[in-house]
Amino acid sequence: MKLVGVKLGKGARVHYFQARDLELEKGDLVVVNTEKGITIGTVVSAPREERLRLFKRSFREVVRKATAEDVEAREKFREKEKDAFELCRRLIGELGLPMKLVGAEYLFNASKAIFYFTAERRVDFRELVRKLAANLKIRIEMRQIGVRDEAKMIGGVGCCGQALCCGTFLDDFEFVSIKMAKEQNLPLNPAKISGQCGRLMCCLSFEVDTYQELKKNLPKVGKRITTKYGEGKVIRQNLLLQTITLELNSGGVVTIKAEELGK
């Protein structure tokens, strides 16, 4: 089975499709059949043979390489998406609905328009759907998403100065906890460990395994140990430098490397 990686829209996630006998290269535009319907994507990894038994699911097929007519149709739909977005935002304001519109998407075969929104509670948007359908003359789907998905769709720059991880290379959101920040000795200040979405930064999960491994070589803060410098209490760890700072019983403070602890 030949699988090809295709990136859809502005999202970072790469989806895989069966390439069949099509000759595809990186950068090609292709028409694919997704769970939402027919759409256009960009090939980001050339087709390669994969063993079907390695996967627990089936893969949809690439319909065809995109033609000039397909590309022209996609541009027309993008213009329609802008107009539909503005219309929906205006209607939300007129109806006083407690929701924030994030994006609008037309499926390539014009079977429906999908509106993505965030809300703190359940929203009765039936009247909104009726008005949208009457104005746009197309089937309407409202899809509520989370704040992390919103950040991924919109994009932006993180506190590190780089483009958001979720908008560049993350395929899926991983579990992130405050314990991961503690493991890395980071300040537990929400303003410093939260991303643009207001949730804990995804990057907290990137290196936590490394920090947990580095901690194995060092005594915990608060533990009393005996070294060649005398007995004292560990008051600080530097995991990356693999050192501890020891407050000696005899007075004074000393910094010791991990390899010196057994001596």
Give a structural overview.
There is one protein chain. By secondary structure, the protein is α+β, with helices and mostly antiparallel strands. The protein has four domains: 2-66, no CATH class; 72-145, GMP Synthetase, Chain A, domain 3 (2-Layer Sandwich); 150-210, no CATH class; 224-260, no CATH class. Helix content is 25%, strand content 29%. It contains six helices and twelve strands. The protein has helices spanning 68-95, 126-136, 147-154, 178-183, 190-193, 208-215, and strands at 2-8, 14-18, 29-33, 38-49, 62-65, 100-106, 112-118, 139-144, 224-227, 230-238, 243-248, 253-257. The strands form three sheets. It has a five-stranded antiparallel β-sheet with strand order 2-1-4-3-5. The chain has a four-stranded antiparallel β-sheet with strand order 9-10-11-12, with no helix packed on it. Strand 9 (224-227) and strand 10 (230-238) form a beta hairpin. Helix 1 crosses helix 2 (126-136). It is elongated, with a radius of gyration of 26 Å. It starts with a strand and ends in a 6-residue tail after the last strand.
